[in-house]
Specification:
3 domains, 3-stranded antiparallel sheet, 19% strand, binds zinc ion, single chain, Arc Repressor Mutant, subunit A, alpha+beta
Length: 492
């Protein structure tokens, strides 16, 4: 009898969205002409002096606070030596033994929460520290490689979790939650396409065989830049390591950790380095930078910039607005969407209806335009009014989509009631008026009436037919609920 459990710890590198780089004044800019955003400092010329970007430090502390970390009052910089073409200085300024944040945790949502709460799991955070990014090797020239140093010196926040995840899906959830947090805090754009977040999972298995426990050698998968690759590489490793153990019986020992890469096309991890030795990075304190002393006043000032975090907000939406877990997670995925939703509810929109309008129409339109819901040019007040019109059956739910689209298209910022009139989408709910039309339809369709009243097999179908006739006569503008009521009353 063999059982196994997969154990995953994650290292995450997040690019902070400061205007200038970590230790010089060069702009942090994606997509600029190669080597146009560089200076002697980030090029690592001899004799230059780095100066710490205060905002980057504050952003990093803010994330540390959001991850419930201890924030020491004293932290320092270290040199991590390595030679690589994209790092012309031959060392990276990083933090070694005194990171700016440690011993924290993050709650992640688990699938299958109850209707009134969100099920969560706590993942430990070992540490978070600041460092500088390296440049980029470019391999598009036909027979040589090039290097673009624009990215060199970009502030990077490295976050290291405890090995608390038990699978690809769970690790993906953690990664997505971290992305949501850094975006909420406004410290990173968190754009995966631009490489703002990179993952390096450490994966191994605990295998129970004949009552004995075995651990497989740890594999680190390097440099993953999508959620999908992260999840798939872990799932792949789970199978691969199980098979390898059954074949060779190899277990975890000192020095048999290996490094693998992810091949997106083959959907497989590929061995890069076997028997990785403890790297001798020859860390030593950075002599060109003074340590950072974080006073209580400064720390409190940074703490003041915390906002309600996405999971707390999601949980509150389930509790306070009685929204489903899925809806709550969609609405809280972006801070601006959540704020728009709450503004519309505040303006009098019923929460569930506002939610439907935003998740079923608003987000789709925003997606098409490549912007957020709050940038569609529609006010929360107008969405609240639209929700109210659906609620009072002034318009049908189907028409609300057309009106929402018209609101986005109309440059004039027309209110939904005006657009409903213009588009002829106001439902007829006037019972007296509809009564006359029903009467007419009944008179014209004696056979269908007979089918309904006889109560036989054809009864329901005939009832639907009569309703359809009324809708047709009113060009779809009759409130079907009111018509059904009248038909019910007339035909019993
Ligand atoms: Zn520079
Ligand atoms: Mn790092």
């Amino acid at each position: 009898m063999i059982q196994h459990k997969v154990i995953v710890g994650l290292e995450i590198h997040v690019q902070l969205c400061t205007r200038s780089k970590m230790f010089c004044g060069c702009a942090v800019e994606f997509g600029a002409q190669a080597n146009s955003r560089v200076c002697p400092v980030c090029l690592g010329m001899p004799g230059v002096l780095p100066v710490m970007n205060k905002r980057a430090f504050e952003y990093a502390v803010l994330v540390g606070l959001a991850l419930n970390c201890e924030i020491p009052s004293f932290t320092k910089w270290d040199r991590k030596s390595y030679y690589y073409p994209d790092l012309p200085k031959n060392y990276q300024i990083s933090q070694y033994d005194l990171p700016l944040a440690k011993n924290g945790f993050i709650e992640i949502p688990l699938p299958g929460g109850k209707s009134d709460s969100v099920q969560t799991k706590r993942i430990g955070i070992i540490r978070a520290h600041l460092e500088e990014d390296a440049g980029k090797n470019v391999h598009t020239a036909w027979n040589f490689s090039q290097v673009d140093l624009n990215r060199t010196g970009t502030p990077l926040l490295e976050i290291v979790t405890q090995p608390d995840m038990n699978g690809g899906a769970e690790t993906r959830t953690l990664a997505a939650e971290l992305q949501r947090i850094v975006r909420y805090l406004g410290v990173s754009e968190g754009d995966m396409q631009k490489g703002h977040i990179r993952f390096e999972p450490n994966i191994n298995l605990i295998i129970t065989k004949d009552g004995r426990e075995f651990k497989t050698p740890i594999v680190e998968v390097k440099n993953l830049n999508s959620f999908r690759a992260l999840e798939r590489s872990i799932d792949y490793e789970e199978q691969r390591q199980l098979e390898e153990f059954l074949e060779t019986g190899a277990v975890l020992e000192m020095g048999n950790k290996s490094t693998r890469g992810w091949d997106d096309e083959r959907e497989a991890t590929v061995l890069q380095r076997e028997k990785e030795e403890a790297h001798d990075y020859r860390y030593f304190p950075e002599p060109d930078l003074v340590p950072v002393e974080l006073t209580d006043a400064w720390l409190e000032e940074i703490r003041g910039r915390l906002c309600e975090l996405p999971l707390a907000r999601q949980t509150r939406y389930v509790r306070e607005f009685k929204l489903g877990e899925y809806d709550a997670s969609v609405l809280t995925s972006e801070r601006s969407t959540a704020e728009f939703f709450e503004a519309a509810v505040k303006a009098g929109g019923e929460a569930k209806r506002v939610c439907n309008l935003l998740t079923q129409t608003g987000l789709k339109l925003a997606n098409e335009k490549g912007c957020g819901v709050s940038d569609l040019g529609v006010t929360p007040q107008n969405v609240a009014q639209l929700a109210e019109m659906v609620g009072s059956a002034t318009i049908s739910a189907t028409s609300s989509t057309a009106i929402f689209e018209a609101m986005v298209q109309s440059e004039s910022g027309k209110a939904p009631d005006v657009l409903a009139e213009e588009l002829n989408l106001i439902q007829k709910s006037d019972a007296g008026e509809l009564e006359k039309i029903v009467e007419q339809v009944l008179a014209e369709n004696a056979q269908a009436v007979a089918d309904v009243t006889s109560g036989g097999k054809k009864s329901n179908k005939a009832r639907g037919f009569l309703l359809g006739q009324v809708m047709q006569k009113t060009k779809g503008q009759a409130n079907p609920k009111v018509v059904s009521e009248i038909l019910g009353r007339r035909l019993g």
